[in-house]
Amino acid sequence: MACAKVFMPATYPDGYELRGRSQPLCSTEGKRMKQKQQHLYRRSRPISAVDSQTVVIGLAADSGCGKSTFMRRLTNVFGGAAEPPKGGNPDSNTLIGDITTVICLDDYHSLDRLGRKEKGVTALDPRANHFDLMYHQVKRLKEGVAVEKPIYNHLTGLIDSPERIEPPKILIIEGLHPLYDPRVRKLLDFSIYFDISNDVKFAWKIQRDMTERGHNLESIKASITARKVDFDAYVDPQKEFADVVIEVLPTQLIPDDNNGKILRVRMVMKEGVKNFETVYLFDEGSIIDWIPCGRKLTCSYPGIKFYYGPETYYSSEVSVLEMDGQFDKLEELIYVESHLSNISTKFYGEVTQQMLRHAGFPGSNNGTGLFQTILGLKIRDLYNQIQNESKEKAGKADREISRAYY
Q: Cα–Cα distances in Å, from 338 out to 11, 69, 107, 258, 266?
């Protein structure tokens, strides 16, 4: 029987390797070989960047501004509590959850505590941080490659031996400088900045350091003053680049109140961010002032007030949702939740459920807890959208390769 020439290409498009050499085959034999090689291709096709890419979230804030509490809320949204690596350095700053890994960017300090003192720089100064290493390792993790990350030991002030970090589904980098380096900013799928006013930050730091750490008032004031110049120069400007800024301010419900107990919290949301729809109250794009106190919401003095509306923030169009005051009965939050849209819940009352579940977390009775919870749900939705896009791209790539082969 005459043999028809059936040529088998040596490689697929886009670098996919075909196991076998080009050769003329009889039609029956060629068909069998084609099926066999197709099977081998499916088994050996490398995982593409689309399939394996880690979603990267950046959270910037000064120390003592609520990053740890937000991490607990966020990782709980994805299931399970985040914990330090098992069997690793007990002083590790890394937290690993079911699908999340949180990296503290203090680990990229290039100078230890003594080195900073000798050079006369603070940890906020870029000269005390290794941005090249930070960029390289975040990039590798995003690409699905494990890294050996250093550990900054907050107890000793030394830089410890590195720890191995495997690429998670969601990587959260938090600290003083996640939005400082333009290279790192380009790697982020979403970014957040916690902007705590000086009055509130001072009140919080006094409460924490005097009550929990035994510091005196003068030492606290000196610490704040020493950090302020570098904070204003290197940390605060990063909020311009954030997709969402959570501002924490003194209440306007009580004149001249700066004790930090009643807070006015604003969630400033950039318009046009991919995979993120801004939250709105009642009617999108309108200006809303709402006092919900009455028959459906218990409010003791000074009450609760909400605001929503469009604004401009660093030349960007934003939507702002604001809450001033605090809840008396957290279960009544369901009434407020029912008037909010684009909060990315999976079922009615999920925000209230999350708030009740973590009622002991700081800020659970005011806008910090409410907006952190909503932001956690929004990030879950963003992650799901990115995953779906990746699956669609991978499927499309496979179909294109299949058509090219046949």
A: 56, 25, 41, 31, 19
Instruction: Give the model's pLDDT for residue 397.
Output: 73
Contact between 63 and 228 (Cβ < 8 Å)? no
Q: Give residue-wise pLDDT tens across range 54-81.
A: 999 999 998 777 788 888 888 888 877 7
Rounded distance between C-alpha atoms, residue 368 and residue 261, angstroms: 12
Identify the three-state secondary structure at position 130.
coil
Between CA 8 and CA 257 the distance in angstroms is: 78
Distance (Å) of CA 16 to CA 33, 40, 47, 401:
18, 11, 10, 9
Mean pLDDT of 100-119: 95
Asked if residue 302 has a cis previous peptide bond (ω within 30° of 0), the answer is: yes
Backbone angles phi, psi at 379, to 5 degrees: -70, -35
Q: What is the CA radius of gyration of the chain?
A: 26
Q: Could you read off the pLDDT of 16-61 as tens digits, one per residue?
A: 332 333 344 445 555 554 454 444 344 434 444 445 589 999 999 9
Quick check: 288 and 307 in contact, CB under 8 A? yes
> Looking at residue 208, what is its pLDDT?
67
Cβ-based burial of 335 (10 A; exposed 0-12, middle 13-18, buried ≥19): middle
**What is the average pLDDT across 147-153?**
96
CA dist., res. 325 & res. 250, Å (int)? 10
Give phi and psi for 395, each to the nearest 5.
-65, -40
DSSP state of 301: T
Q: Which residue has the tokens 């610490």?
A: 223
DSSP H or E segment with residue 17: none
What DSSP element (H or E) covers 122?
Answer: none
Number of other residues whose CB lies within 10 A of the CB of residue 273: 16
Look up the pTM and report it. 0.83
In percent, how much of the chain has pLDDT > 90? 62
Question: Is the CA virtual torsion 118, 124, 125, 126 positive or negative?
Answer: positive
Cross-strand pairs, 100? 170
pLDDT digits (tens, 9 = 90+) for 227-240: 889 999 999 999 99
In this structure, of 192-201, 205-214, 339-348, the range with the lowest mean pLDDT score is 205-214
Burial readout 248-267 (b: 16 or more C-beta within 10 A, e: otherwise)? bbbbebeeeeeebebbbbbb
| Two structure tokens written together for 263 | 């807070």
Average pLDDT (314-319) is 96
